[in-house]
Amino acid sequence: MKLQDYLAEFVYGGMDGSVTTFAVVAGAAGAGLDSSVVIILGFANLIADGFSMSVGSYLAHNSENHTYEKYKRLEYLEVNYNPEEGREEIRQIFIKKGLSGRSLETVVEAITADKDVWVDTMMKDELNLTSGNRSPLSKAVVTFLAFLTVGLVPLVVYLADCFARVQHDLFLVSGVLTGLAFLGIGLLKSYIGERPLWRGALETFGLGGGAAVLAYFVGNVLERMFVQ
């Protein structure tokens, strides 16, 4: 297993974990709740949302694998029982790629000489389906671990405050740590997508900051409405 093969799962799991957990922290801070309450709400969010997200990832990728195998069986049936139509589909694929004449026929003959290559070509170029080389379970596990790991960042200072009083504004420190996590996740996101690093970092920072500001003011308003 190559770690870089799972960067996408780590990025999206980590980003969702940090955003949603910091939103909980911001809402609790806006309501003026105690550190112990923030920790309870934060960990409840981490476990429940992280598990939910990993299950969703597993089901989605498992469904993709089943769909791929279904159409692959159908393509093999076509190759075995209706080869002329299958050859014409290969021919049309490479006509669209710009081939013609003898070059086209040479490519068609070469591809249709091997049933596995033939089917693989139709899966990719006709149906736009590719086989995943990673199991849905491994993707789900990476997503869950990333959600927990990065999502824990906003809670670190509150955990520290429970054991030894932190002589700083807890929400401010949590915000700084989470902002750094947002930037790191954004850089990884840009690396995967081969985009400018600054763009991914700013997008993620803006997304997390927006969620935090909204949650903070919602918590603050609700506290004023219901807490006397």
Give the gist of this structure.
The protein has about 230 residues and is an all-alpha fold. The chain has helices at about 5-30, 35-80, 85-95, 100-110, 115-125, 135-150, 155-165, 170-195, 195-225.
Please characterize this protein's 3D structure.
This protein has 228 residues and is an all-alpha fold. It has 9 helices and no strands. It has helices at 7-30, 35-81, 83-96, 101-112, 115-126, 136-151, 156-163, 170-193, 197-226. Helix 1 runs antiparallel to helix 8, helix 2 packs across helix 3 and helix 2 runs antiparallel to helix 7 (156-163). The longest helix is centred in the N-terminal third of the chain and has 47 residues, at 35-81. The protein is elongated, with a radius of gyration of 25 Å.
* SSE order: HHHHHHHHH
Task: Please identify the structural class as seen in this structure.
Answer: mainly alpha
Spans of at least 5 consecutive residues with low confidence: none
Task: Please tally the β strands and state the result.
Answer: 0
Mean of all residue-level pLDDT scores? 83
- Strand % is under 5%
| Helical content band | over 70%
Report the sheet with the most strands, covering strand number, pairing sense and barrel closure: none
Distance between the termini: 55 Å
Shape: elongated
Radius of gyration: 25 Å
- How many helices? The count is 9
